[in-house]
Amino acid sequence: MQSESYPIIKLFVGVACTVGLYSVLYRETKFYRFFEHMFLGLAAGWAMFALWGETLKSTWWDRMVGSVADEGNPAVPGYWAWALLLPIGVMAYFVVSKKHNWISRIPIGIILGLWSGQQVQVWFTRYGPQMQSSMKPLFPTTWSEFITPLQPEAGAVYPAQVIGNLIFLLTLLSAMSYFLFSFETKSKLFNGMTTWGRWLLMIGFGAIFGSTVMTRFTLMIDRMYFVFIEFFQQGLIPLIGGR
Amino acid sequence: MANEKTIWEKLQAIDRRVLYTLLMVIATVSLFFKVNVPTKPGQPTKDLYRLLVDDEALPEGSTVILQSDWTQSTRGESAGQMEALLRILMRRNIKFALLSVADPQAPLVARNVIRAINLERKAKNQREYQVWEDYVNLGYFPNAEGTSNAIAANFKTAVAGRKETPPGSATPLDVFQSPVLSKVSKVEDVPVYINVTGSKTSNILIERLGGRVPFAALVTGVMGPETLNYYQSGQVKGVAIGLNGVAEMESLMEKGLVETGKPEVKSFAGETNYGRGMAYYLALHTCLVLMIVAVVVGNVAMVAARKKK
Question: How many Cα atoms are found within 13 Å in the side-chain-facing hemisphere of B202?
Fold first, then answer.
């Protein structure tokens, strides 16, 4: 009986938490606060458990202490040097000390140094291919067909493709010109480009916002699915009907 | 009498809680209608489907790295993506090494989806995916940037020490002894690196993997527009964006993919293809209609109220 009831109890707790957290839409109350704090506590507790069980034990502790041979696993010697990481990690907690918080800057400095060192390579691997793909042909190589056919000739650039590339280039240059704040310009052409760039950016932001709204709706729909389909229709009603 | 509000003023002053309730009611009612809304898959989703199902891009029985970086907070979009992806991988006997870098809860959430899809296969008398033989769970790795860098530099060292218990054994063994990773030592050894993400870990992987391996991403609607830049430049080979991407993938699984000048990609007709994506799709449409109506009514009411003044 206990094992039969467990899934529905689990779902009920989920539904109660959903209602509790969504109650903020009405007003922030103690009811909402209770569920908010419970959620934060659970997440923090689980994070600590997962950090040890899934990360620190295998990647730090086991490597430091080593292991004896057992069924299928060879003996692995421990490397004491891994212990040196512990004081560096502990130093980060001095951030809560008013007197010694300067110590916490040492591990932060190490992390920042490592991160900064990677940025040159990271920048190029991230934006290099995008800059490369922005170099598009602006002159057609064939006039055999105006619109790009479904099976285009290899390497051929069609007039319609060029029109698309020109629109791309205009968008790219206009949007980039909007961000040139270092000097004032009285050129009508340049000012027109920056205005056009601002319009294009606004259209882009609108599209991004639309996509974001769709995500928010989907998250709400999923919660409704959980409450009314997974809990009521698939969980509670069959349970009541089964009895 | 002079202070009585007009209909336009009343429309502008609708309490937000009324709109929230209306939205929830419309979404909930729509969920009870099982309608397959017609979709026309976009090129990013088509490319993703080709990458996952075409035998040349991903040979049957090969191993992929599956980085699952989502939790319950983006279940609406990411769960559908993960389910569709796992259905394809399992039907093609693709082995996968599962890891997470975004959230400590992510491995547990991913394992729950694997269990659900396994139950679905069991109900259809299909072979269940077995840990060790078909997939290994590498677990959670903190610091997305550092982990991605380490994976790109030396995959074997990056995940060294991770163990998994083979079925029928009590002793956890090194994951590189498993059939899943026995032939993998560097990231270039896998044909595709897949990231299902509810955050920006796809961007981190793009910049850290640096094109060493074909990369596919299943992202939320929030990350979609940004990820399309990387798709246009060829840094991402295929993308599924949000719920729309899930519905498109499910539609492709049902109907297959025919493109001029490219080999046909098979469908999985007769299997369970429509899942969470199509279940939510009608509700998404009705919610969007409500929002458009609310925006239009609000603006018309504002203009009408101004004119009256």
Answer: 31
Q: Give per-residue pLDDT as tens, B148-198.
A: 999 999 999 999 888 899 988 888 899 999 999 999 999 999 999 999 999
Strand-pairing partners, residue B95, are B63
Same domain, B184 and B44: yes
Whether B61 contacts B201, CB under 8 Å: no
Residues B47 and B11 placed together within one structural domain of the fold: no
Number of domain units in chain B: 2
Q: What is the pTM of this model?
A: 0.91
Query: Is A64 buried (19+), middle (13-18) or exposed (0-12) by CB count in 10 A?
Result: middle
Q: Which of A59, A122, A221 sits opposite B27 (nearest CB)?
A: A221
CATH code of the domain in which B153 resides = 3.40.50
Q: How far does the CA of residue B88 sit from the closest CA of chain A (Å)?
A: 23
- Angle of helix B144-153 relative to helix A105-134, nearest 10 degrees, comes to 60
Inter-residue contact B271 to B248 (CB < 8 Å): no
With an 8 Å Cβ cutoff, are B24 and A63 in contact?
Answer: no
Question: Cβ contacts (< 8 Å) between B25 and chain A: which residues?
Answer: none
Per the model's pLDDT, the better-predicted residue between A153 and B299 turns out to be: B299
Range of the domain at B307: 1-36+278-309
Q: Are residues B63 and B207 in the same domain?
A: yes
Q: Is residue B5 domain-shared with residue B64, that is, in the same domain? A: no
pLDDT by residue (tens digit) across A209-241? Answer: 999 999 999 999 999 999 999 999 998 888 887
